[in-house]
Design goal:
By secondary structure, the protein is α/β, with parallel strands linked by helices. The chain has 14 helices and ten strands. The protein has a ten-stranded mixed β-sheet with strand order 7-6-5-4-3-2-1-8-9-10, with helices on one face. Strand 1, helix 2 and strand 2 form a beta-alpha-beta unit. Helix 2 runs parallel beside helix 3. It holds the Pfam family Radical_SAM. InterPro entries: 4Fe4S-binding_SPASM_dom, Aldolase_TIM, Elp3/MiaA/NifB-like_rSAM, PqqE-like, Radical_SAM_PqqE_MftC-like, rSAM, rSAM_sf.
Length: 368
């Protein structure tokens, strides 16, 4: 399915510019200090949103905007003592709930309290086998993540997901991570490419050759264990990087739309508003604060969202302009493009680097 080029085009169809998905960083607090954290999490803000404010925000999303999908992230969401209450409230409002956690604070008692929620994604971060994961996140985090997976399985949670952020320290560990996915009967696997923001710098990023190796290992494991797990739709894998034989089976289609950008909105733990979770690092993309203006006013009147509403999603530079998937992929993650090139119309960095080094699939270039 091809994308409508702009939010204005969506308005012409729907009569309004909708928010299709939303995220809330419920806290900046995190008990880990990962070197690749684009949110620069660790210590909490001294003015984080209260339980009442987050519930009110959920009301606004649900009742005023009709948002159906909400993603809870952090920091570490389970570092909040009221996270169960927040999740249950979103469930009460009939929202599709996704959550990302390092798993280290999950207990059987906590999970029993949210066992009734049908999560669309319950994501646990695992960035490698024990030695690699603990090196990246801290001693004991691997063991706690595995324990969380065991508890989720024991309590029959659905859509349990393992997510891996690809970087130099783990690009050659994908096969071992997939073995963990299969061993613990995890439903979904998500490979996420590094967002160069916050604590994550370009030195952590993989080379094009390392990326190709990781991608090849991922799809080889997918073939090997076909039917044992799904690949996550939120994996930031451009469809052009899906092997040709799997594209023939249609696998690439689930990666064609990275997200609903620019028809999404992100709320920081202090109430700041940005186009999505990946833009909080950039002050120029902070559209306002929900303690100073209503979400509706920010969405309809801020310069940030006004400019994005006029953005032609197909007006992307570089290799993206030549790619056969432009009309459906639209340059993939715009936060990554802006972080790397400081240009919202820039190509997706991963694909551009592959193209410049002659490694981009030639059958995905128009006219080649």
């Amino acid at each position: 399915m091809e994308l409508v080029d702009t939010s204005i085009g969506i308005k012409e169809i729907l009569g309004d510019i909708p928010i299709l998905a939303a995220s809330i960083r419920v806290t900046k607090r995190c008990n880990a200090f990962c070197k690749h954290c684009y949110g620069n999490s660790g210590e909490p803000f001294n003015n984080e949103l209260t339980t009442r404010e987050i519930k009110k925000l959920i009301d606004v999303y649900s009742d005023e905007f009709g948002v159906k999908k909400i993603f809870f992230t952090g920091g570490e969401p389970f570092a909040r003592g009221d996270i169960v209450e927040i999740l249950q409230y979103a469930y009460y409002k009939n929202m599709e709930i996704l959550i990302s956690t390092n798993g280290s604070l999950l207990t059987k008692d906590i999970l029993k309290e949210i066992q009734n929620i049908n999560f669309s994604m319950f994501q646990i971060s695992i960035d490698g086998p024990k030695e690699i994961h603990n090196k990246i996140r801290g001693d004991g985090f691997f063991e706690k993540a595995i324990n969380a997976l065991k508890l989720l399985k024991e309590l029959n949670f659905k859509n349990v997901t393992i997510a891996t952020c690809l970087m130099k320290e783990n690009y050659d560990q994908i096969n071992k991570i997939i073995d963990i996915v299969v061993e613990y009967e995890v439903d979904i696997y998500s490979l996420v490419l590094l967002l160069v923001a916050g604590r994550a710098n370009s030195e952590l990023d993989v080379t094009s050759q390392e990326l190709k190796l990781a991608i090849n290992d991922l799809f080889s494991a997918y073939r090997k264990y076909k039917g044992k797990f799904k690949l996550a739709e939120n994996s930031i894998i451009p469809p052009a990087l899906v092997p040709a034989n799997l594209r023939e089976e249609g696998l690439h289609k689930q990666f064609e739309v990275c997200c609903a950008f620019p028809n999404i909105i992100g709320i920081e733990a202090n109430g700041d508003v940005a186009p999505c979770d990946g833009f909080f690092t950039f002050p120029e993309y902070i559209a306002g604060n929900i303690r100073e203006s209503s979400v509706l006013d920010i969405w309809e009147r801020s310069n940030v969202f006004s400019k994005l509403s006029e953005l032609n999603r197909l007006d992307i530079k570089g290799v993206c302009s030549k790619c056969i998937f432009l009309s459906t992929c639209a340059g993939s993650c715009r936060a990554s493009a802006y972080a790397y090139y400081k240009d919202i119309h820039a190509p997706f960095p991963t694909c551009q680097k592959l193209y410049e080094e002659g490694l981009f699939p030639p059958d995905c270039i128009v006219g080649e």
